[in-house]
């Protein structure tokens, strides 16, 4: 029977962990996600700055990241108040 | 009268309220539907809209709405005797607060989880929305000023609590880092945080820190108020994960531990209520029970602040519409239980009636100090904890509550200033720092303007805070009532509380107007007039909106739901 007992103990522990984690994060989930998004937006600006005419000394390195951020590009320019892509050779919509 | 019996009566009545009255309201009036697709599912985004387990949501809702106010208000109001405060808290929770809180969640859920502020604009009208913005600003202003005064007073009266209260901030900062950097898992951090907090409470009496009576020409009390605002200002601009989130979490854990200790001590000791049932010998200058009781106890009986939480965050996370009953109504009951404990210890925590009368020597006296001293007496005799440690524990409980409410309140006030900067095109006001400074400035003006240079008289604005809070509740009840009228459902269960609240609020404001005039306190007189004008506008808006919507409902087909 010890396996059964340890199983129920483990289930109880994971339940307790779930409740604690939800209690910690639920109230501030929105605020934290928004501030993370602000950071990411700044990062997007850094990565795409050269294309918009803003000199970026790290352009050589950020160029590599552009394909990786392609998926987020559309959301980003919409969020920044630009209906369509601001870059001529980088169209997404 | 035995405190344990009164506690039992209160708990039984509130349980009946939940089992019978809330079921009736949920099924017959709001008609909560388990199949309704809530905004948490409809707009699920993993950020704001997240279907959440109802027990977790209840915990959040309860800890967000339960602050120092349900302790301070009842502990002041027992000056009229324990019966009026007891009845208003119990009946208020059952017939007012529960219906209001559950209704606010329901109204928001049925309107894409909009906040009660924007609902006022949509459901009632644009004019009502403007009044709402003013009332909300006044509530926040008063809450911040009053709570700074409350904490400063606690720091002066209980120097043993200074170390744990400020130490709790350090504990929260460390907990925040441990979790953010994923150094230790949350269950372990929870234990570490709570143990550290209670270790500080235990160590507090050995290291009392007394602020000198005068520092650089300012009174000790005034210095504490300034320090508190400095802290709250910094806290409100820090990222939330750094301080607010861990602080709220530890506070939540501490709230449940504190409530258990208090209820356990009352049950074990079963003290006698030394305070009179109805006090016929109130100190000179105490205003009349009617209407002041109903604004002195706002949180704990009904509070507009709950509507903001209910419609601001809770409604976006509601998994099923039927959960509104448990989260909203039972959340109100949780707060009622906190107020009930405050009443009991403020009335039974003294050795004799003479001791009690010495504590309640004037209106506004007693309050949180009576809660701490009475509670310490009950815990000491009931659980055997040293009295000074028990007093430190309760002071920390009250101060941390007031502190977190201040952090949040100041942050919200900053948002309002930033929004005004947006509306009136003032670029400087849109920035966080100037907006925070403006918020702090207005709060300091109120704390010192109302209470004089040392800020110690700031508690005079407590009933004024209560009236503004009730006005906010009135506006939320108006939104719910208008929705019910639209749906052709019985409106009396929300309309009667609304009328009662407005009547008491206006009466209290008029009475206070006279008092402030006689005291030649023109600052508060001005503030009173502003709130009175808002109250009258709310009353007129209620009459006009109800008339308009009843006429509209009579010509329209009833809503499908």
Task: Please give a handful of descriptors for the protein shown.
heterodimer, A: about 90 residues, mainly alpha, about 60% helix, about 0% strand, elongated, B: about 550 residues, Amino acid/polyamine transporter I, two-stranded antiparallel ribbon, about 75% helix, globular
Entry summary:
The complex is a heterodimer of chains A (93) and B (561). By secondary structure, chain A is mainly alpha-helical.
Walk me through what this model shows.
The complex is a heterodimer of chains A (93) and B (561). With 93 residues, chain A is an all-alpha fold. Chain A has one domain (2-79). Helices cover 62% and strands 0% of the residues of chain A. Chain A contains four helices and no strands. Chain B is an all-alpha fold and 561 residues long. Chain B has a single domain (3-555), classed as Amino acid/polyamine transporter I. Chain B has 22 helices and two strands. Chain B has helices at residues 3-29, 39-42, 54-65, 69-77, 82-109, 116-124, 126-157, 162-180, 186-203, 220-237, 244-269, 289-296, 304-312, 323-348, 353-359, 367-383, 387-423, 427-430, 432-451, 462-486, 492-518, 522-555, and strands at 214-215, 218-219. In chain B, strand 1 (214-215) and strand 2 form a beta hairpin. The radius of gyration of chain B is 23 Å and the shape is globular. Chain B starts with a helix and ends in a 6-residue tail after the last helix. Chains A and B meet through helix 1 and helix 2 of A and helix 3, helix 9 and helix 11 of B.
Tertiary shape of chain A = elongated
Mean pLDDT of chain A: 83
**What string, H for helix and E for strand, traces the elements of chain A in order?**
HHHH
Oligomer: heterodimer
Main β-sheet description of chain B = 2 strands, antiparallel
**What number of domains of chain B?**
1
Q: Biggest protein-protein interface?
A: A-B, 19 and 27 residues
Residues in helix, % of chain A: 55-70%
Q: Structural class from helices and strands of chain B?
A: mainly alpha
Q: Enumerate the strands of the largest sheet of chain B in spatial order, edge to edge or round the barrel.
A: 1-2
What value does the Rg of chain A take, in angstroms? 22 Å
- What count of helical segments of chain A does DSSP give? 4
Approximately how much helix is present in the residues of chain B? over 70%
- CATH H-level superfamily of chain B: Amino acid/polyamine transporter I
């Amino acid at each position: 029977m010890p396996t059964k007992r340890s199983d129920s103990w483990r289930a109880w522990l994971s339940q307790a962990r779930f409740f604690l984690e939800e209690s910690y994060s639920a109230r501030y989930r929105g605020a934290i996600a928004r501030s993370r998004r602000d950071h990411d937006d700044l990062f997007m600006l850094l990565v795409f700055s050269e294309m918009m005419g803003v000199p970026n000394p790290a352009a050589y390195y950020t160029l590599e990241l552009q394909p990786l951020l392609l998926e987020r590009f559309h959301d980003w320019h919409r969020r920044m108040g630009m209906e369509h892509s601001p870059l001529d050779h980088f169209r997404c919509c | 009268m035995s405190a344990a019996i009164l506690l039992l009566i209160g708990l039984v009545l509130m349980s009946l309220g939940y089992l019978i009255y809330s079921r009736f309201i949920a099924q017959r009036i709001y008609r909560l539907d388990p199949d309704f697709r809530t905004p948490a599912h409809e707009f699920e985004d993993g950020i704001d809209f997240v279907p959440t387990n109802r027990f977790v949501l209840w915990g959040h809702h309860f800890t967000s709405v339960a602050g120092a106010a349900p302790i301070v208000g009842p502990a002041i109001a027992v000056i009229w005797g324990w019966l009026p405060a007891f009845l208003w808290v119990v009946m208020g929770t059952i017939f007012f607060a529960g219906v209001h809180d559950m209704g606010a969640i329901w109204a928001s859920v049925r309107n894409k989880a909009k906040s009660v502020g924007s609902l006022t604009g949509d459901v009632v009208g644009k004019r009502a929305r403007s009044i709402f913005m003013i009332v909300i600003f006044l509530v926040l202003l008063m809450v911040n000023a009053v709570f700074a005064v409350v904490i400063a007073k606690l720091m002066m009266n209980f120097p043993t609590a200074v170390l744990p209260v400020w130490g709790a901030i350090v504990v929260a900062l460390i907990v925040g880092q441990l979790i953010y950097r994923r150094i230790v898992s949350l269950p372990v951090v929870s234990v570490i945080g709570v143990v550290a907090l209670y270790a500080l409470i235990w160590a507090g009496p050995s290291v009392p820190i007394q602020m000198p009576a005068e520092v650089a020409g300012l009174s000790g009390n005034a210095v504490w108020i300034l320090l508190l605002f400095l802290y709250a200002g910094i806290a409100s601009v820090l990222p939330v994960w750094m301080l607010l989130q861990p602080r709220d979490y530890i506070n939540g854990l501490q709230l449940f531990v504190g409530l258990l200790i208090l209820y356990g001590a009352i049950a074990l000791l079963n003290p006698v209520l030394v305070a009179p049932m109805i006090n016929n010998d109130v100190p000179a200058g105490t205003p009349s029970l009617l209407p002041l009781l109903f604004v002195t106890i706002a949180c704990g009986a009904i509070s507009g602040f709950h509507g903001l939480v209910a419609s601001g965050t809770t409604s976006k996370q509601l998994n099923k519409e039927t959960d509104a009953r448990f989260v909203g109504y039972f959340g109100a009951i949780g707060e009622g239980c906190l107020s009930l404990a405050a009443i009991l210890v403020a009335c039974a925590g003294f050795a004799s009636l003479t001791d009690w009368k010495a504590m309640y020597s004037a209106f506004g006296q007693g309050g949180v100090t009576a809660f701490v001293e009475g509670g310490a007496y009950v815990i000491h005799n009931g659980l055997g904890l040293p009295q000074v440690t028990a007093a430190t524990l309760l002071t920390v409980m009250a101060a941390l509550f007031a502190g977190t409410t201040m952090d949040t309140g100041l942050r919200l006030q900053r948002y309002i200033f930033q929004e005004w900067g947006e509306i009136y095109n003032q670029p400087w006001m849109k920035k966080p720092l100037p907006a925070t400074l403006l918020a702090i400035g207005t709060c300091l003006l109120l704390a010192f303007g109302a209470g004089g240079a040392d800020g110690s008289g700031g508690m005079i604005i407590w009933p004024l805070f209560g009236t503004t809070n009730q006005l906010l509740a009135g506006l939320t009840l108006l939104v719910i009532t208008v929705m019910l009228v639209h749906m052709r459902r019985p409106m009396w269960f929300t309309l009667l509380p609304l009328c009662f609240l407005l009547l008491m609020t206006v009466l209290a404001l008029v009475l206070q107007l006279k008092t402030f005039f006689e005291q030649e306190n023109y600052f508060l007189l001005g503030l009173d007039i502003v709130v009175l004008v808002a109250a009258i506008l709310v009353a007129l808006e209620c009459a006009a909106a109800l008339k308009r919507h009843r006429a509209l409902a009579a010509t329209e087909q009833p809503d499908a739901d």
